[in-house]
Design brief:
5 helices; mainly alpha; about 100 residues; about 65% helix; elongated; single chain
Length: about 100
């Protein structure tokens, strides 16, 4: 049986179960070589990609929605329900996301 590295005192726990240790090592070393600016740019690009996917998901689920409704549904993905109701009069549990 292969050692998973769980209780080994010198081996860090894997970051992802589906990634081979050598591939993870290469990835982590690559991150270590990136400048702070490069890391920030990567984070920004991932954030933009996630937001674009969320937008497309709303449009796919609600093709009839106008701009305002899309904005509310997107907001409901990130803003707590109580605040959505208080600030915008939109209840995500009734209206959906």
């Amino acid at each position: 049986m292969a050692d998973s590295g769980k209780d080994h005192p010198r081996r860090p726990k894997p970051l992802a179960r589906d990634t081979r240790p050598q591939a993870e090592k290469v990835w982590v070393e690559g991150l270590g070589r990136m400048s702070l600016s490069q890391k920030a740019g990567t984070i920004e690009a991932l954030h933009r990609a996630a937001w674009a996917m969320a937008l497309e998901g709303v449009k796919l689920r609600h093709p009839e929605a106008g701009e305002e409704e899309i904005r509310l549904r997107l907001g409901a993905l990130r803003i707590p329900r109580e605040l959505m109701i208080r600030a915008f009069g939109w209840d995500p549990e009734k209206e959906g996301w």
